[in-house]
Amino acid sequence: MDENLAKILSNIDYLQFQFTNIQGQLKAVEVPQKYAEKYLEEGLGIDGSSVGFMLTEQSDMKIIPDLSTLHLVPWNDRIARVICDIQTTNGTPFPSDPRSILKRALNMAKVDFGFSFKVRPEIEWYNMTPDGEPVDIAGYMDAPPLDSEIEMRRAMVDYMMNYSIYPKILHHEVGPGQMEIEFIMTDALFAADMVQTVKQIIRMVAWMNGLIASFMPKPYTTEAGSGMHVHHMLFKGKKNLFSAEDGEPSTTLKHFVAGLLKHAQGLTAILNPTVNSYKRLVPGHEAPVYISWGIANRTALIRVPAYEKSARIEYRGADSSANIYLVIALLLAAGLDGVKNKLEPIESISLNVDHLTNEKRKELGIKQTPSTLQDALAALNADKYLCGFLGEQFISIYNAMKKAEWDAYTKNVKDPKTTEVTDWEFNEMFEKT
Length: 433
What we know:
Elements: H1 3-10, E1 14-20, E2 26-32, H2 36-42, E3 44-47, E4 60-65, E5 71-72, E6 79-87, H3 98-113, E7 116-128, H4 150-162, E8 167-172, E9 178-183, E10 186-187, H5 188-208, E11 212-214, E12 230-236, E13 239-240, H6 251-262, H7 264-271, H8 277-280, E14 290-291, E15 293-295, E16 302-304, E17 313-315, H9 324-340, H10 358-364, E18 367-368, H11 373-382, H12 384-390, H13 392-412, H14 423-431
């Protein structure tokens, strides 16, 4: 163990082992400092069934710390945290561990193509009072005093910088009490760990101020939803493969976009993982529901920004409840399918996609993303490439989780999809997949 890690361990009272479950929830278990070095070397046993990974009879697994993520917790210097991967008891990566799935995608890019992947996420959320009301009446990029939460955002950023996380832009978003923080482009695994750390910081600072930070996609029917746009770039060595020599979008970028478009319907079930997600995905609002791409077109699902010197892709479909490890992994896997098979995308569009007629969208080959969690799961199960990448175990667990969510929803909402959805219809869909 190097001197820096030893110094951290010698000055704490507790070490917190963190990991992320399939639902994207941050989980943690602590050990006193006396046992910290032992468990850093050996890992810790956990009950996987209790955190949503396995059946009870298959529940023994281990969390293995990534020492590069060991860091003092800035709001309590008695505690350090370390981020963990999940392994089976025989020491192999657990197939349905989201962090391991991302590592698998990154390894596929490196081994099969010689590529690396960089990501820049944007996170939106609402600050609420304990009774669920927005904390202010401000709107997009309003200045203080309308933006009354600016000091709290700064406190959040101060904690982030203690983790060597440096946000690029922070501002008030469209909705009352809605915030956004954007980050710089960075290595994909670090970016995913960063998002989980940042979400914890946001929640902690809000809690310390007597408030609630909510990453619910659509907490208020009449207000803007909270998305999680993911900008990304593909590299070979130091070369950005999305840029042609003249700085325009490259052939590789177009193949990558074609892969994203091909798998967009199946991606929706992971990038928009809750029943509430589909309250945000409504035609005519800012959240994109039409499977399209365009240069500088913010109404398209996939935007290629026009003001950058080096081309990149922005996928605008994910929401703030999504599991960031799975989001990044699947965007990469889907894009690589397009690159490998030299897929060609539909024509890029510069028009407002929401304002096109159904006939015009059909003419342009623009389809729509699923409009309910049920439809999204059906699309995921029909996408054999995504299912093959995620693995049979993950798909089985995910189907069971989301079926339970949908069943709970349909029992409380009589008509969730305009037409009546019966339990047997939904059960039959999963029996066939």
